[in-house]
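Re: that chain you flagged

S.,

Sorry for the slow reply, it's been a week of failed gels. I finally had a moment to sit down with the sequence you sent. For the record, here it is as I used it:
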Amino acid sequence: MTTEIELKLQLDPKAARQLAAHPLLAGTPPLKQHLLNTYFDTPGLELHARRVAVRFRKKGWQWLCTVKSAEPASGGLAMRSEWETPATPGVFDFSHVDAEDFRQFLEARRERLEAIFTTDFHRRIWRLPFGESQIELAIDRGHIESGGRRTAICEVELELLSGRVDDIFALTRELQQGIDLFPAIASKAERGYKLFLNEALRPFKSKPVPIVETQTPVEAFRSVALACLEHFQRNESGLLIGGEAEFVHQARVALRRLRSAIKLFAPVLPPEFVAAYGQTWRTLAGALGDTRNWDVFLEETLPPIAAAFPEHRDIKRLRKAAQGRAGNARKSVIGLLAVSEYPRLLLEFTAAIYTLDDTAPLPLKDFAGQQIAAYARKARRLASRHAELNPEERHKMRIAFKKLRYSLEFFAPLLPQRRLKPYLAALAQLQDELGLINDHITAETLIVEALAGHPAGPVHGWISGRHALLVEELPEVLQTWLAQSIP
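Prediction finished late last night. Pasting the structure tokens below so you have them in one place:
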């Protein structure tokens, strides 16, 4: 078995031609290959469910059988286990897979494997000495095909043959000067499955982070931060096409979780890392927040207002103005993702995460316990004063609960599940209640902005009344949470 460390970058055909002429590649004729690959799976896509890829590749006159474990990528960087051996097309012999349970999984399904999709592309390869490393750079141009559907391939792969992973990032920084290269998260296999399933683009929600007690706090942060980055990147395409509101919501949640993780792990992270990246995402997060506020107003807050005042002359004008503001907010997000600094930020942040020094002696479980306890104390202090809190202080309480919930979700694998589940349920209910209160406060501001100062007295009265009712319900929800013990 080999472990493949690979950075994948997307580019357009013009940029591919520019890259091939880059001074770092000039003077070294590339190795050229035509690679035809067929990927196999069971009718129920059992390999795909386990994030395994099996393919036959025609490389010149030779056929190879390759098995890969498809760990998720973040910031374009993927680390995958790979087994490859010469083979006869259609003959599935997995004896070269030296992980016994993995091999048994494949052998048990050997008779049911069938072709799912093909990739057909031309590859140009340069092997470069860079820093202390040997790096293989490949430009791939071609297509993926399944069931008569086809999608283009135009990407760069940088594979670390030997040396240090940070040299891959340093090389990419040089290549990004003057060439638009975007960290890519989906492998060819993942794209092939989407084509086979004819899947529409869908919002991507966060998944549990697979941290383990044997990790150091810095290693755990790396897992958490990369999971947050993956969460954001997998919603990026939906943002760029101005897709449904849930793309905005999930991208916003991803950045909030990421920024919360940096603060949560700050005691064990280098101060310069926290200073640099604690604020880096603020502008993009703010733009997503503005967009989300208008989406919530249009989809959740305005409909009951319109139902309460069907004949009010300002409702139609308010909806039209809000739709215009929501559209402009989406354009702001798209504009931020289009600037050249954005793909560089993804790359720099991913590099910084992978190259963090790990000197914290504190066991992960002890660190998690300390941080959760500190977050819970802060939330309880604010909760004990809820009756005297003004709207701004109540907003701070909402944020404190959100940070507590994120910390529990990040550290969930280390916590007793029997106590964690009801605690998170009570916390989620409390967050929902506080979120509704905050939505109504935000709505009053948005109405003033949308109507450019024109009065909408009955509407403001309705919102104020609804806000007061929600605040009255808050003590009961707080008591439900306070009755739970910290996991």
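What I noticed first: The chain is about 55% helix and 20% strand.

Talk soon,
D.
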